[in-house]
Amino acid sequence: MSGLVLKNINKTFPGDQQAIRDFNLEVKDREFLILVGPTACGKSTLLRMIGGLEEITSGSLLIDGIDMTDADPKERNVAMLFKNSVLYPGMSVEENLMFSLRMAKMNPAEIERRVEETAKILNLWETLDKMPEELSAADTYRVLLGRALMRRPGILLLDRTIAEADPDVQEVMRKEFANINRELGITVIYATDSQKTAMALGTRMIVMNEGVICQEDSAQNIYNHPGSLFVAGFFGTPRMNLSIAKVTEENGSVVLKFSSGTIPLSEKKGKLLRELGYVGKEVFTGVRPDKVAPAKNGENGEITGELIGGAEIDDAPYIRFRVGENEFLAKAEGGENLTGKKMSFKISGDNVYLFDKETEKIIAE
């Protein structure tokens, strides 16, 4: 059993720099939780406090119902793997796996048993006699993971562990992380900058910014239903197109007026905006690039943009264009002539997210 509860956790560094703010979280035993957010959002600091490597300024941390707020790291039954972790040089894979348990004077027979179990789970049998420099990148990460697992921790903390690995290695290791969560029943908390990793693992995810939780849900639900302008703009590759528009009425229908076009809204969204008093006001708008398409020959699009050029993101082609002061992306459909100065784009009001200009909270999606 290795459930985790954080109650009103705060972390303030010298100079009154507050990294974590009144943070409350419950992680269930054997859960796989993902922390995602921009650089310096507090996710690494949070992991270090859970592991006992960083002092908690205020609040309490409980593991299996026991207060571990001020406990020594070795008392917490927590292992942590960083992105800059390295294998011990001059030691074979097997010696790397055994090292910490030998230092703790564990029974040799138990050490051997754990090596066998770890090698089986991580497919390390053929590498046990190899030296670190003989290993592939994927096997190096497997051994680092195996070394962390040798103590059979109740909680495994992964801090951007594969951030610098090649895409193929990242894909392999994502499967390994999910596998050890299932096979060993270890609670895993994974902090990552990679939205691709978060989407691929598909478990409960927390989006952080400035030391607080912005939203928590499955990765897919957060992508489809962002609760704030920050989450909408941060989560998604490529990122959502964001702009300001004025809510107005034309011929009895509610529309969004941009500097270079108008997007009609559905009757349902229009009714909501009327009831909430947004007609005549400005709102933030968001639309995913794959919901923006260049107008075909002879068609008039809702938005006219000043062409900037093309872009390739995750091997997919996009068109870059400017609407007012904002740069937009549209999914290229092939054959577009990008040599002109302006192009018309189709955007359905059904695909536009609306956010309050003051609070930046979601109004409608």
Helices and strands in order, then pairings?
Elements: E1 4-13, E2 17-27, E3 32-36, H1 43-51, E4 58-63, E5 66-67, E6 78-82, H2 93-103, H3 108-122, H4 137-149, E7 155-159, H5 167-184, E8 187-192, H6 195-201, E9 204-209, E10 212-218, H7 219-224, H8 229-234, E11 241-250, E12 253-258, E13 261-264, H9 267-275, E14 282-287, E15 293-294, E16 303-313, E17 316-323, E18 326-331, E19 342-346, E20 353-356, E21 362-364
Parallel strand pairs: 3-8, 3-9, 6-7, 7-8
Antiparallel strand pairs: 1-2, 1-4, 4-5, 9-10, 11-12, 11-14, 12-13, 14-20, 15-19, 16-17, 16-19, 17-18, 20-21
Helix pairs in contact: 2-3, 2-4, 4-5
In short:
The chain is α+β, with helices and mostly antiparallel strands.
* CATH fold-level name of the largest domain: Rossmann fold
Q: What is the annotated CATH architecture of the largest domain? A: 3-Layer(aba) Sandwich
Number of helices: 9
User: In one word, what is the shape?
Assistant: elongated
CATH class of the largest domain: Alpha Beta
| Class of secondary structure makeup | alpha+beta
Measured between the Cα atoms of the first and last residue, the distance is: 40 Å
Query: Over all CA atoms, what is the radius of gyration?
Result: 25 Å
How many distinct folded domains?
2
Order of helices and strands: EEEHEEEHHHEHEHEEHHEEEHEEEEEEEE
CATH H-level homologous superfamily name of the largest domain = P-loop containing nucleotide triphosphate hydrolases
Largest sheet: 6 strands, mixed
Average predicted confidence as pLDDT: 92
Helical percentage:
25-40%
Q: Based on DSSP secondary structure assignment, what is the total number of beta strands?
A: 21
Q: What strand line-up does the widest sheet have? A: 6-7-8-3-9-10
Strand content: 35-45%
Low-confidence stretches: none
